């Protein structure tokens, strides 16, 4: 006799939840049963938000940060931004870490990852071409590479600095206080602020 399990629809919900960040098999089951108990009125806003996510949330063509469709990008269009500095980060959430540190008010460019030959992440997979295109139109004085201090982060920084050689743009790198492994998501705001203040020249751009 087959072992009794949840009805297929509940099993499907559990399967969809399982594997989400921080959610293991037990957590997925707990969450599915909690959702089941919530009733339609509590579940619908969640279902609705999920269903509209792709239609509503896009990436800004310029900086690569999330944007509500139809809204201007506060980072690219903001009147108070220092347009002479452009900070390159690996992932979109890194932008918020720098913003929340309060130590930076320039422009951003999200690469969408970092170079990793082992994972087949080459410059073509990242927003490198977009970066070079933007730099042609922006009057950038300094590019800050706010990339992870690990091997991939260093390789990506070296690659970008090389590309910008001869552009006349100064390239700096966050260094001070940054941990040797991982990206900005492991760093608190004070450390980011100090790392911004203590950034070091990586390439004079000439
Ligand atoms: Zn933008």
**SS strand fraction:** 15-25%
Number of helices: 8
**Series of H and E elements:** HHHEEHEHEHEHEHE
Low-pLDDT ranges: none
Mean pLDDT: 89
List all distinct small molecules, including ions and cofactors, that are bound in this structure: zinc ion
Verbal overview:
This protein is α/β, with parallel strands linked by helices and 206 residues long. The chain is built from 8 helices and 7 strands, in the order αααββαβαβαβαβαβ. Helix 5 (92-101) links the parallel strand 3 (82-89) and strand 4 (106-110). Helix 1 (8-17) crosses helix 2 and helix 5 packs across helix 8 (189-197). The radius of gyration is 21 Å and the shape is elongated. The model has no long low-confidence stretch (mean pLDDT 89). Residues 60, 62-63, 65, 73, 75-76 line the site of zinc ion.
Ordered list of secondary-structure elements with their pairings:
Elements: H1 8-17, H2 25-38, H3 40-56, E1 57-59, E2 66-68, H4 74-77, E3 82-89, H5 92-101, E4 106-110, H6 128-137, E5 142-146, H7 151-164, E6 170-173, H8 189-197, E7 200-203
Helix pairs in contact: 1-2, 5-8
This protein binds zinc ion.
Top keywords for this entry?
206 residues, 5-stranded mixed beta sheet, 8 helices, 16% strand, binds zinc ion
Quick gist of this model?
The protein has 206 residues and is α/β, with parallel strands linked by helices.
